[in-house]
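Appendix B. Chain record.
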Amino acid sequence: MKKLVTTLLLVVLALAIHAQDNQTPRFSPEKFEAELQGFIAKEAHLTPQEATKFFAVYKEMQEKQRALFDKQRELAKTKPSDEQGCLKVIKESDAIDLELKQIQQTYHAKFIKLLSASKVYDILQAEQRFHRRMMKSWGRGGGNWQGQKPQWGQGQKVGPHWGQGQMPQWPQAPNTQR
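Structure tokens predicted for this chain:
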């Protein structure tokens, strides 16, 4: 009888956990990309024709960048055990950073051939704003990337103009030096 009750309890618990997981919003790369493109198109006032031309080239740039980001992530997975290994990883990471900048520069020139410089500028600014907003919302919601309001804990102090460019002022750690 105890085994039956225990088994039944475990099944109910597993179903409850599974149901809760299904309600938690998961990151969707497709949805993220669609929101990014919609945000950029709206903020930069792109016409549908401009958006179609631009995002084809933009996607090409992102694919090249993603391959390099993957390389950087692989380099950062484990710390080398000796000085030579650390130096090698640092140099490889620096080379990848330079390659990323070269890709950016090349594609910015391509963008300017498709659109006016002012539109490209607006696109670049919109892209930065979008990523900043996403990072803020991820930090606020524990993985929620859909932009919910922050859930501030008790005892946290925030600056007098929070939301106007100032960072929160966290309590100071006690001074342990004597």
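Further analysis of this model is presented in Appendix C.
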